[in-house]
Request: fold
Amino acid sequence: MADNIIREEILSFTSKAASYNIIVLKTVNSTNSYTKELAKGNASHETVVIADKQTDGRGRLGREFFSPEGTGIYMSVLLKPESLALDPSLLTVAAGVAVCRTINSISKNTPSIKWVNDIFFGGKKVCGILAESTTDSKTGTINNIIVGIGLNVTTPSNVFPGKLGEIAGSLFPKNTTRNEIIAKIIEEFKSIYDSKNAEKLIEEYKSYSCVLGKKISFTKCGETFAGIATDINIEGNLIVKLENGESVILKSGEVSLGSENFAR
Ligand code: BTN
Reply:
């Protein structure tokens, strides 16, 4: 099935996306970087930039996001904080849930989320989310939020370079084009951030979590800690009960979990 990313086709799959300004590019360094530049001009709330390939796709913690041509979805959504019903700090959680709902709607298998926003499917990471913001130089307040979503759709396992091949995988959906998947993500994401209901969102996010109740480890100031992930609070922070009995709240960063726990 031909699977070119085409703006009109994306729009044909959803009514809500009609309010979006969708920009489709063949190749770009990074849709997040491109969208950030647009945001410095006059780009509007709900501008969506999608590329078929990224030459400098960026992940969290300064990592690269492998973004080969024709087999993935690399998209960034520009949002204005004042136009959101949802607390902006929950946008990565919201994007994670939107992607999981989308995967659920096109597949019999359920995805899972490794806090904070790595999405696993069939034991492999298929999606990462990178939220960035810009601030108003005069007031110092956040004036743009760019939520970047990278989803491996049909990237063959032997194409991922080096050790990435052990961790990363693809969705391989049946009879579903990237245009349909993009439309669904956009629609689900919008339905979440247009709602104020953080409790409901966190409950749904927790239902996808593959870390809750599991032994995890994380590094802070060069020291490694281990404990059980006991809860995710209303702010999307991870609560971890350490081996010494103390509970800590993780607001950002990354946790590690045995790979056998990723499969659902
Ligand atoms: C991660 O896994 O650490 C996050 C990866 C985020 C990748 C997406 S792809 C679209 C957008 N543009 C980027 O350069 N990064 C994000």
Notes: The helical segments are 7-12, 31-40, 91-106, 164-167, 178-193, 198-208.
